[in-house]
Amino acid sequence: MSRIADLKEFVSERLHAAASEILGAIEKTIGDYEVQASRLKEENDRHRSVLDIILKSKLPQTEGYRCNLVTQMCEKENLPWVKIPMVRKEAAEEPSPAVLPLVSLQEFKKPMTALTDASHDAYETGVIRCDSRFFCSKGTSCCKGSAGQWNCCPYPLGQCCADGQHCCEYGYTCDPSSMSCRGPYSQVPSGAQEPAKMD
């Protein structure tokens, strides 16, 4: 009978040791998962904040409109039946402050109907820098072309159309075809972009 008691005690000790070992491994695994989950949450929070910044910078900054990311439409405030499609914008790199031209308000009020060539002299006063290598002449805007190259829009503060070949004057938005520009009370043809000049 003592052999059975010894056997029971031996089995009990082995089971207890095995259970302790299994519980220790489970606790370690849970701890590892908690650390990994915490790191993933921090990383997701960082990605989410970067994504928020990117999405906010790509929303049209049209005054008087509310834009919906889900429907990709912008709705005129107080006039919900007036809707325009959202246009994705790519911002030009910000030029250094020493290169920024000072332009009088009177120059912005002059209508600009003809295309202008990009300047040949990169260091000429009043050039618009698209990035460190490309520039457009004074009174124009930089737009990303359909192939990713820089183009010059003939309008100051122009809105670049989605096709990468046309643009609209300030205060107008490109229609879905990019061939015309819609304003509050009128529609006009869009302007053609010209290739930017390189230093």
From TrEMBL:
Please provide the record's keywords in A-Z order.
Answer: Disulfide bond, Secreted
For this record, an example GO cellular component is: extracellular region
Q: Which Pfam families match?
A: Granulin (PF00396)
The Granulins domain covers which part of the protein?
130-181
Q: Which Gene3D superfamilies match?
A: Granulin
Spell out the subcellular localization from the entry: Secreted
Q: Which InterPro entries does this one have?
A: Granulin, Granulin_fam, Granulin_sf
PANTHER family reported in the protein's UniProt record? GRANULIN (PTHR12274), GRANULINS (PTHR12274:SF7)
> Family assignment?
Belongs to the granulin family.
The protein, known as: Granulins-like protein
